[in-house]
Amino acid sequence: MANITKKVSWSSRGDESGGGERTPLLNGSEEVRYTRQLSGEGGMFHIGRLSTVDLEEDMTSDEDSVRGCPKEIPHNEKLLSLKYESLDYDNSENQLFLEEERRMSFLGFKCLEISRWVICGLIGFLTGLIACCIDIAVENLAGVKYYVVKQNIEKFTEVGGLSISLILWAVLNSAFVMVGAVIVAFFEPGAAGSGIPQIKCYLNGVKIPRVVRLKTLVVKVCGVICSVAGGLAVGKEGPMIHSGAVVAAGVSQGRSTSLKKDFKIFEYFRRDTEKRDFVSAGAAAGVSAAFGAPVGGVLFSLEEGASFWNQMLTWRIFFASMISTFTLNFFLSIYNNKPGDLSSPGLINFGRFESDSVAYNLYEIPLFIVMGAAGGLLGALFNILNYWLTIFRIRYVHRPCLQVMEAMLVAAVTATVSFAMIYFSNDCQPLGPDQSEDYPLQLFCADGEYNSMATAFFNTPERSVRSLFHNPPGSYNPLTLSLFTLTYFFLACWTYGLTVSAGVFIPSLLIGAAWGRLFGILLAAITPNGSVWAVPGKYALMGAAAQLGGIVRMTLSLTVIMVEATGNVTYGLPIMLVLLTAKIVGDYFVEGLYDIHIKLQSVPFLHLEAPATSHWLTAREVMGAPVTCFNRIEKVGTIVDVLSNTSTNHNGFPVVVPVAASDDLGKICGLILRSQLIVLLKHKVFVELARSRLTQRKLQLKDFRDAYPRFPPIQSIHVSQDERECMMDLTEFMNPTPYTVPQETSLPRVFKLFRALGLRHLVVVDSENRVVGLVTRKDLARYHLGKHGLEEMQLAQT
Description:
The chain contains 29 helices and 22 strands.
């Protein structure tokens, strides 16, 4: 997060002449009159009068000397950042586009459709392959670590000096985590965390910088291997969703801008419309590889992301998900020397819940609902604690070296706490012939017994979840589970948000499985015949669902993911009830974890619907006005000056036909984007040059696709003084049919149109079709329902 020293506070709308009624701000604060000139999103505005609020205290002379590297970065989540742009999900149907479509034969369209299926297959295959590599690397590294520590502990249990084992464990953990944190903090900060909030934003239509780069993928994969092998309270499932999305963004473009390598394939798909659809397929393939849940992956993309959806897209995404889980399954079967045995559909395998052991009675449903409510409360507590911790990190832990040190500290503390819990635990269980523990620790237990606490801590989180689900009754005593739940809850809360690649899915499942199993044990103890129906593994599953639902607040997709991961549909209804209850209870206190982190990054995220009480607001009140417009034939110097203006960074410009010489407003005849104008300037598409036949060829759509997605900045394009006097005809390149709304349209109606069609700019016109304003994502995202009714967020260049 960049340093936010000032925030710009917008208030009621004023027109160009400064007239109009004085209306109070939505939050009841004092009004400040201003004029805003906006012709697109991003960047700053032309401001007639503006008030700034200084977020920093008055600095002393000592602080002035370190202004370049402040100790504290102020933060205010009531801000909306202007640095984020929208994706152009709506095609620009200009003359070039229409000519290309007309030239394309029926066979050409069929080939494109086949290409889409091929790309989705490749996305699934590569995502599954990456998941396989992550799984094998983590298992081997963690295996070596646990074997070394186990040998060391056994050695020093007999002769004394277990502190050496603790130091060895802490050092190994810190070393792994240091590598993971260094590559994230110093090479690609965009790879931090699970990446799910960023992918949610991308699918929502926000262009998050560097989120789908190849470098991000490499750092993400290496980072998550180090994090999980380093023993942090994290999972490798969340980052798989981000990895799948990056794979999709790369494969679908047929080139790598990072490696500067163009394979000259899939050129037709080099635009936001197609790319965003493929990214949704990649995210679904990531879910599928992580949980072995192809249907859950499709529903995840549908629930969390893409606003525009159709049946063919659903089929392609399902295909990518299926290929992903099959690929992972196939390669893991070869790795495990069981080629063809496709029994590992996902990275997390909950194991089989056999029908007789998972049967439930009608009277248990209220108990499941109570567990859902408990999960909602615990999830809300987790989210609130993590929110304040993240605020602290933004303010004080903003230097890369500090971020690495914090990650190493967490790794060492995790090892120390784990060791202490195992050391002081006297919960010894017999080591039977059917015992599935990979690293059973005897410690101070008698021969033929192992330390039960070590099963939970001295293992990868996935294995710990599986043992909580499937170990027979009596494998854990209640005190062990209580202490484990308490410590792991706070460790997971502290860990999420570190500068490492890590997910929150598995820690949430592990916390929930622990207290769920505890709940089952207590039920069996206090009810007659409880030991018959209160199977601990069944309640561990419900607790895991409740805790995960309480933290991330996903309902539909998570229900299906849990059902698919358990391999048994019997629990469909209880899991759905548990997740629904957890969401309702949790939402009463605070938002879901991903939504909190999206808000903390000040991203202009558009929710499913406009705020409930916003019907009285109209397009005229939310739009940016007056608008910078271009004429159909515009002077090159004027275009260059507008694009070069550093105080404005507009991305869309209405093209107008002047109505009268005295009237400033012109009739709308099209819309042209900054990226299109830059390509036109780069290729010198001027009227005079076309007449003198100095241009070699006519500009084609391919020229725009070749420049996508990293269009050159206007500063890199040289325009001579003579060329500034030339004219540019925008008719052929502008979108002649942009979406427009009358200025009296209500905010919910504008919101619905904007979100459903994935728009970037929505032109507001008067009764005579003259441009009066422009609505962009930030104009809509600023309004949200707060504790005191409808509130307006402030905009800042962060």
